[in-house]
Amino acid sequence: xxxxxxxxxxxxxxxxxxxxxxxxxxxxxxxxxxxxxxxxxxxxxxxxxxxxxxxxxxxxxxxxxxxxxxxxxxxxxxxxxxxxxxxxxxxxxxxxxxxxxxxxxxxxxxxxxxxxxxxxxxxxxxxxxxxxxxxxxxxxxxxxxxxxxxxxxxxxxxxxxxxxxxxxxxxxxxxxxxxxxxxxxxxxxxxxxxxxxxxxxxxxxxxxxxxxxxxxxxxxxxxxxxxxxxxxxxxxxxxxxxxxxxxxxxxxxxxxxxxxxxxxxxxx
Length: 268
Prior knowledge:
By secondary structure, the protein is mainly α. The strands form two sheets. A two-stranded antiparallel sheet has the order 1-2. A two-stranded parallel ribbon has the order 3-4. It folds into three domains: 1-41 and 51-88, no CATH class; 97-135, no CATH class; 140-262, Orthogonal Bundle (N-(1-d-carboxylethyl)-l-norvaline Dehydrogenase, domain 2), CATH 1.10.1040.10. 57% of the residues lie in helices and 6% in strands. Helix 9 crosses helix 12 and helix 12 (206-222) packs antiparallel against helix 13. It is built from 13 helices and four strands. The chain is elongated, with a radius of gyration of 23 Å.
């Protein structure tokens, strides 16, 4: 399932490959723009029955069978098409991301240095700043570890605000002071005012934040590693979802920390 705005941005008149492999094209393009995290569990079953039109269709010269197709050629053609779309619609992509966000965007890139260098022009369209994260897969693992820090910083800010309020401090003054202190993190700029104003219109859905936290905890469990701070933070996310609903912003985590008499009514 893809957002309509994304499909409208990247879809082009189909060539022969795109006619058959449009899902591959869209999923590859989406991964390049937003990143991908592997989930190491089966979430659904897919059965390809004998009369499947794609896997066993009659075509000129015989029968089509997806398992025997030259996937490396399809992959190469798809990547060439994506590159052409990125280069041809560079301004449209910058506008879709927003000029400010685009200029600050940093891509974590993994793979062989020569391959990354060959794709420099295309990568520059997606994100002007890039970090070579290592071998294939290391970029996703790096992003997961960064998300751990970001999530716990957000929870720490929420707890600090609630504590400051309990001390009788002016919340706006406290946030302004915290921004100038050694405790500063960018989450104060992006989520601080939303926490104070109880403005939980979503910039990032709290349900997605919890999903990321569960991925992190799942990876840690596979490595026999305890993450006590992240475990506590995930419980706060669950409590906030119970209070405010899954579609609210991740800054709503503060509601799981505020005293119960100050919490909002549960959504129906």
